[in-house]
Amino acid sequence: MSIFERYDDEYRGLTSQISSKISELSSYSSSNSDAQTGVQLTQGLLRQADDLIKQMGMEATGSGDRELQKKTKTYKKTLQSLRADFDSAKQSLDRSGLLAGADSASREDRSRLLQTTDNLGRQNETLDNARRVMAETEDVALEITEELGRNREKIQSARSKVLEVSSMTNQARRLVHSMSKRETQQKIMMYGLAFILIGAIVVVVYYMQKD
């Protein structure tokens, strides 16, 4: 699975949670603390989705894939629509007075809200660190891939040179062998001619002495 596909799956999960939280906000009617907590959680999810969209945009731009870039733009529009739905639900809560009386909430409700907000902040920080590590890992992987490509070119070039030298060595070996064979043939011919010449001289001398 590619990095963009992982982002895609995470984005779909976030938008599903956001839609569910917005529906819950619309159902609140009396509990001020629950409404306030729901608003805080939804805002945190929207921030996560916004950060994720930015990562997806960077990944799509880096890959040069137009289909991924189009998908990212579509996801941005979807997130804008969800944000508008959230703003509308929040305004309805404001008008109904569920959020206006936050100052009168009990200490226990305030503590729970602060704890939830802190947990959400830590989750966001963890996700940011994970995305940063993934981005750094991707950069290192790209550098290694480029280095491997350069090394592959060097190896192929060296292999071509070795094959060329081997071919030249084989040609030289065949040439030396041919020269050696020709030299042997020439020696045999010289010895044969010398033998014939000596034989002819012997015959001539023999007939001269006979006469």
From TrEMBL:
Query: What parts of the sequence cross the membrane?
Result: 188-208
Q: Report a single Gene Ontology molecular function.
A: SNAP receptor activity
Keyword check for Manganese, yes or no.
no
Ranges for domain Vesicle transport v-SNARE N-terminal come to 1-89
Q: Which GO terms describe its biological process?
A: intracellular protein transport; vesicle fusion
What name does this protein carry? Vesicle transport v-SNARE N-terminal domain-containing protein
**Gene Ontology CC annotations of this record:** endoplasmic reticulum membrane; ER to Golgi transport vesicle membrane; Golgi apparatus; late endosome membrane; SNARE complex
State if Signal is listed as a keyword: no
| PANTHER family according to UniProt | VESICLE TRANSPORT V-SNARE N-TERMINAL DOMAIN-CONTAINING PROTEIN, VESICLE TRANSPORT V-SNARE PROTEIN VTI1-RELATED
Q: Which UniProt keywords apply?
A: Coiled coil, Membrane, Protein transport, Transmembrane, Transmembrane helix, Transport
- Species this protein is from: Triparma strigata
Topology relative to the membrane, per the entry? Single-pass type IV membrane protein
Q: Please give the family membership noted in the entry.
A: Belongs to the VTI1 family.
Q: What is its main location?
A: membrane
- Location in or out of the cell: Membrane
The superkingdom listed in its UniProt entry is Eukaryota
Q: Which InterPro entries match?
A: SNARE (IPR010989), v-SNARE_N_sf (IPR038407), Vesicle_trsprt_v-SNARE_N (IPR007705)
